[in-house]
Amino acid sequence: MQSLLFVSGGLGFIFLMTCLGAATVFFFHKTSTGKFQQIFLGFAAGVMVAASVWSLLIPSIEEAQAQGLHGWIPAALGFALGALFLLGLDKLIPHLHPFSDTPEGPVSSSKRTTLLISAVTLHNIPEGMAVGLSFALAAQHNDPALYASALALALGIGIQNFPEGAAISLPLLQEGISKRKAFGLGCLSGAVEPVAGFLTMLLAALIAPFMPWLLSFAAGAMIYVVVEELIPEAQLDEHSHAGTLGFMAGFLIMMVLDVALG
């Protein structure tokens, strides 16, 4: 019961932060969003890289070693499978990244706004998985330190979800959608995270011996999103350091949260 309350609070928090980020659409004009979006995207990338290392890969290795395995095997193979999973979704689901005019995936007659939301929904899946798995690991061991680490991860993902919510609502505003509708769609794009988190937590409870693989799987999926989408979009302006500074800030904050609270 305690673990369910913790994970509900953690997943509810990351969803709330997405909605708060989407609400920034009410404070920007259509012509003044580029620099802020580069900072937002870079920050999200930094948080996800730090979370993948400290909250997922290192626990994956430690959990594998506790099971008497070579730590690097599930860490490496799970990481690769996570990246391949996201690559497969990229190929199967039509989507359109912000700042791009060319949709990816199968040919689709969907509107640009629908394709934009699909792109964000895709990279929200591993974030929800990561939080759900962290709480599942804490529940398996009933360890206060692991609960603290899971809460730190939820806090870090929640913080980066604020700019991430903005990164979807602001491009929707530029597409000509009203501020109210852009906010609603941006908020809705984050709903996949609690769903993915709960499903992953239930899966982990059923196949506890595979926890090292699941943790590294989530890490691989997150790193794929960072390299494939967030960093390139944060660096579109070749003469700006906004995306780089955002990345450094996001990485630093997530690292401090995980080490200080974990």
Give a verbal description of the structure.
- With 262 residues, this protein is mostly helical.
- It has one domain (2-26, 51-261).
- It is built from nine helices and no strands.
- Helix 1 runs antiparallel to helix 7 (192-206).
Give structural attributes.
globular; 262 residues; single chain; mainly alpha
Can I get a quick summary?
The protein is an all-alpha fold. It contains 9 helices and no strands.
Helix content: over 70%
What structural class is derived from the secondary structure elements?
A: mainly alpha
Shape: globular
Strand content: under 5%
Say how many strands there are.
Answer: 0
Radius of gyration: 18 Å
In DSSP terms (H or I, runs of 4 or more residues), the helix count works out at 9
| Contiguous runs where pLDDT drops below 50 for at least 5 residues | none
Largest sheet: none
Query: How many separate domains?
Result: 1
Q: Strand-and-helix sequence, N→C?
A: HHHHHHHHH
Please, what is the average pLDDT? 84
User: N- to C-terminal separation?
Assistant: 22 Å
Which helices and strands occur, and which strands form pairs?
Blueprint: H1 2-22, H2 34-66, H3 72-92, H4 112-141, H5 144-174, H6 179-189, H7 192-206, H8 211-234, H9 242-261
